[in-house]
Design a protein that fits this description.
By secondary structure, this protein is mainly α. The termini are far apart.
Length: about 120
């Protein structure tokens, strides 16, 4: 990168450590599965037990439980016991922000491109 360019260290951006990059890649890798991303989206809106998450994301209970275990091991979700139920939640506002931003932006783009396609079809295109 050229000196003074927006991404250079001179502009106040230094490269993250290899450890930080590894952690970010692991987190993004876990979120690359549509079911886990849907679960994170749901949990960003509030806590839920495994049965409620399975219903919401349309997954089998054992599969959703396995996804939750992976997300929990990675530190992306936490849980607490409520009687006999295990309730899951996202305890990191930064994770919530990233998920909401990415999914929100892609939803907005899809809606805009859908509106463009509908306008073109309505005009006889």
């Amino acid at each position: 990168m050229a000196a003074g360019s927006p991404g250079s260290a001179e502009a106040g951006f230094s490269d993250p450590s290899a450890e930080v990059l590894d952690q970010a890649a692991e987190a993004f890798g876990l979120l690359a599965a549509p079911t886990r991303l849907h679960m994170m989206w749901a949990l960003a809106g509030g806590e839920c037990d495994v049965t409620g998450l399975a219903e919401r994301v349309g997954g089998a209970l054992p599969a959703v439980s396995q996804h939750l275990s992976k997300l929990k091991l990675a530190g992306l979700v936490r849980s607490r016991r409520e009687g006999r139920r295990q309730v899951y939640y996202v305890d990191d506002p930064d994770v919530v922000t990233v998920v909401r931003l990415m999914v929100g932006q892609l939803t907005e783009r899809a809606e805009q491109s859908g509106a463009t396609v509908r306008r073109l079809r309505g005009a006889g295109a």
